[in-house]
Structures are given as C-alpha cells and as structure tokens.
Amino acid sequence: MDTLPQLTDAPRGSRVAWIYGGVWGVLARGFLVPEEPPVLPSLRGEPIRSFRPAPNFLRYLLYPSLIGVAIACLVLLAVSVGVCVAAPALGLPLLAVSLPVIVFWVAIVVLAVHLRYDTTWYVLSDRSLRIRRGIWIIRETTITFENVQNVTVRQGPLQRVFGIADVLVETAGGGGGVGQHQAGASPAHQGLVEGIADAPAIRDLLTAKMRTSKSAGLGDDAASTPRTPTAWTAEHIAALREILDAARLLSA
Amino acid sequence: MPPTELSFDPQRIERPDRSLLWYYVLVAAATGPLFPITFLPLFFKYETLRYRFDDGGVSMSWGILFRREVYLTYRRIQDIHLTRNLLQRWMGLATVAVQTASGSATPEMSIEGVLQADALRDHLYREMRGAKGEDAETMPTPDANLPEDEALALLREIRDALNGYAAAKPAAARNSPEQ
C-alpha cells in the first residue's frame, strides 16, 4: 500500500521510456497535467498516503486491449494476405500500409493505458479519501468517511486473476450515474477506488469508521449532542454507595 | 504550499474572476454559429454571479430574469468535486462542485471562476463534517484516564467528608432532632 510515486514500469533508460517521458513532458508543460500526486491537508497531524492502483491494474487494462488489437490485426493481415494472393499489385501496397497502422495502433493503446494508470491517484487519511482521475478533464473527488453510507467491493473474474478489486464508496443522495452525461460532472455521490490490491483493508477501514460514527452521515452533528459521562466504572458505583450510606447515617 | 494559499480568505470572494467571462466566450464559441444563443445566458450568469462565504456556509446567486440563490452549510457537504478541463487549466480556472445529501445527481452548487480553487476546496474540506475527526476526540476512553479521574476523586472526598461528619456528630444530631 505504501506505493511511492513513480512512473510505471517502462524500462528505465530505454528508448520507450524516453518517448514516454517526452509524452509526459508535453502533457505536464503544455496541457498542465499535474505530475505530483494530490495531497489532503492534514488537519490534526494524521498521516496522509498517496498511492496509485496496484501494478496489476496496468496489466489488467493492458492485456485485454492488446488481445483485442491482436485479433483485429489478424483480421487485417488475413485480408491483406488474401488480397495479396488474389491481386499482388493491389495487395502489396495494402500490406505495406497496414503494417505501420498496426504498429501505431499498438503504440497508442499502450500509451493510453499507461497514461490512464499514471494519472490515477488515491489519497487516504484516517478520515477522508481523495481521488484524482483523468487527463483531458481532471476530476478530483473528496469524501470524508463520516459521510459514507455504504461501501461496495467489486471484483470480476479477470480482476480476480490479477488479484485486484474495485472499492465503490457512496455517500447519501441518489442519482449516481445520471449526472455523468452532464459536461464536467463526476459521478455524483460516489468515489471509485479501482484496481487496488488490498481492497479489504480499505473496506475494513471504512466500515470501522462507519460503525464507530455516532451520526447517520447526513450532516447531523454528533459532537453537538450532550455527552453524558457514561464511562463510570464499578469503582464509581462503590463510592456512590458509600456516600449513600454515610448520608443515611447522617439523616437517621 | 505558496504563501498566497495560506493567506486565502474565502470571505473576500464575492465575484468570479474576469477570466471566467473569457472562458464562457470560448465555451460559447465552440458551438459555432450558435454563439449568440449560448453566450447570452452565460454572459448574464457571469455578470450577475455573486458569492458569499460566511462562517457557516456559502451562498451563490445569479440570474437576470430568473434569479436563483443557493445556500448550503459547510457541515452538510457530502462530497467535493474539483474538475478542471484543458481550457480551464490553461486559464487557471476550475469548477468546484459541492454535493449535499439531496436526491439530485447534479451538484447542488458549482463554484466557478475562483482562481485559488485548490485553496477553496481545502477550505470546504476543512469545514465539512468528519474532516477534523472531532468525534474521535470527544469519545471517552474509560480505562485510559482512570488514574487521574477527577470525578472519582471528588466522590471519594465527599464520602470521606460525610463519614467524618457522621462520626463526629451522631450524638448531637440525635439529641436535638426537632431542629
């Protein structure tokens, strides 16, 4: 969980990493995509952790899309070869064009998946959660655990293979998803922490907070209700009985 | 964190920044020939937009024909969404959308045109419920503070005083019961 901020596992020093770094430089300087992880203000000195999804989330995103690309490429190649056999004059240029298209396509898919992974951040403190997501539209959602109504852990079969899960944190108020088509709006009343390895840990943290919380999470102020000293022990009771005895003795 | 964010005072915010108008111009320009139709409401929204941040909440009003004023208290904020699209990032703007527990999916309040959006968001976060963990602080921990329990010490003192009184004056108390 203590994942340090770092770019994904593109081989260091290689040409690929260099190109990827260049793309990041353009995004960071030209398109003002923040490179540093988001933070939460630490109000009472509580520890703040910023982390990315688990590394397997990258593979979970990458492999299915690469398989999809591979199938499409096979179809494309088969068509090209078929045309080649039927009419070489037409097929050879087609093959010459389709090969770069395939290479370019694979590169775009890999790049997009890596960028999505690298721009997804979660920040966790004892009391709240912040999620940052997006490249063109950067959305940051902040939710305090005090307001959380329910926590859902989701894991599909493929996610189980990769050992990751999604945690959906929902606050009160309906209409999640309806707001998605509105421009610039995040899904309402929810925060999605996707692709993390220790989803049960986050779920346990949240459910523990929900159990100890005195309020319903609807803006009601638990601290304002008068708190009687319920912490009296057997010693208090014994002392009170002795006082009662002494008082009886006095009044007798 | 730069010192400007430390000196951020939301109560000084009353009007959106001028760059919001240019942002609206560009947004309306993106619709092409519909520019006059889309820009006019946005222009009037910018012209009439007023914010008022006080200690307990924030109010936002706009509109020229149909006026709207939204007020919400910080403590009822459920979640805060800070959204920046490419254009907004280039212009230093952001949308801070605030949601309460009402049933609508659209944010109850979308604060636009504040340049220090991060500071504003963190201000709202500080004021919203559960951010400070005040519940954990007031939660009594019975066993931890037992040795220096003031209530118990007081009770024992009262008991001792009563015992002393009862031991010293039983005869006097019985001799003059009519008092």
Describe this structure in words.
The complex is a heterodimer of chains A (252) and B (179). Chain A is built from six helices and seven strands; from the N terminus they run H-E-H-H-E-E-E-E-H-E-E-H-H. By secondary structure, chain A is an alpha+beta fold. Chain A has one domain (15-212). In chain A, strand 3 and strand 4 form a beta hairpin. Chain A starts with 14 loop residues before the first helix and ends with a helix. Chain B has 179 residues and is α+β, with helices and mostly antiparallel strands. Chain B has one domain: PH-domain like. Chain B has helices spanning 3-6, 19-29, 35-48, 86-91, 117-127, 134-138, 150-168, 170-175; strands at 50-53, 57-62, 68-73, 79-84, 95-99, 109-112. In chain B, the strands form two sheets. In chain B, strands 1-2-3 form a three-stranded antiparallel sheet. A three-stranded antiparallel sheet of chain B has the order 4-5-6. Chain B starts with a helix and ends with a helix. The chains are: A alpha+beta (252), B alpha+beta (179). At the A-B interface, strand 4 and helix 6 of A face strand 4, helix 4, strand 5, helix 5 and helix 6 of B.
